[in-house]
## 1
Amino acid sequence: MERKDVTLVGKLGEYDYNRPYVCSECGGIMIFRGVGEYECEDCHYRAYDDYGKARNYIEKNPGATSGEISERTGVSQKAMRQMLRESRLEIASDSKTFMKCGICGVNIRHGTLCEKCAASYHRLAEEQERTKRMLAGYGMDIKERNEGAMRFIKPDQNK
Ligand SMILES: [Zn+2]
Ligand SMILES: [Zn+2]
C-alpha cells in the first residue's frame, strides 16, 4: 500500500496525471500545449492528461461531482483529490463535499490549508527567514568588529 502511494506521487512529490508521452495514433512525441492538453508533433493528434480530462468534463458539465467526473472520464479519485490539494480544481460553492484544512480541520474547497492557517503559516515562514537573516547579519557584524574596522577591504577580496 505504502509503496503504491510513493509510486503515484512520483519524483519530487509531483503526480504527473497520466500525461501522454507518446501519440496513441502514430507513436510520435506528445508536446505540452497547456492546461492538461498535449499535441502530437507528427500527426497533431490531441490528447489530455487527467487534469485536461477533468477540466474538459467540468467545462461541458458544470456542477459535476468528483465521483461523476471520475466515473465518466476514468480519472481516479486519487488524482481528483490531488488536483484539489494543488488548487488546480476547486469544489463548487453549492457542493456538500469538502476538503479539510491540514492544520485546524475547517472545511476548505481547494488546497491544503484554510485561508487563515495559510496566512499564519506564511507569516511564520517569513519570520523564521527574517530571524535567520538577522542572526547571520549579527554574526558577521561581531566578527568584523573583532577583527578591527581599520582595514579597507576591496570588494573582490571580501570573500
Ligand atoms: Zn501522432
Ligand atoms: Zn485552518
Note: Residues 116-157 form one domain.
## 2
Amino acid sequence: MPTRGEPSVAASGEWRDEEGVRLPAGEAHAWWPGTNQTLCGLALSRSRLRRFHHVPWPDVFPESGGAADEVRRVCPRCRAAAGGRRPGRRWSRVSPRP
Ligand SMILES: [Zn+2]
C-alpha cells in the first residue's frame, strides 16, 4: 500500500491570509481527505468543522510557522494519532506566489 502522506486539517474557524488563502483558526484537528471524521473521531458535519484540503496537518503546529497563526488549540488526540512534525520535511508555502 502506498504511503498516504500526511493528513490535512479540519478546524473550528477560518481566516484568509493576504493572498486570499483560506487558513484554519480556532481548534484544529487532523483529517484524512475523503473521510468524514477527524482522527480523534469527531464527525465533521456534526462538529461543524471546516475542511482544509490544502493545509497539511504539520502546518498547524506553532513551531512550523506554516498555518498556525490563528490556531488556538491543536487537538491532543489528533496530535497523538497523527504525530507531530515530520523531521526533515522541507518548509513550503501552500500557495505559490504569482
Ligand atoms: Zn481531534
Note: The first strand starts at residue 8 and ends at 16.
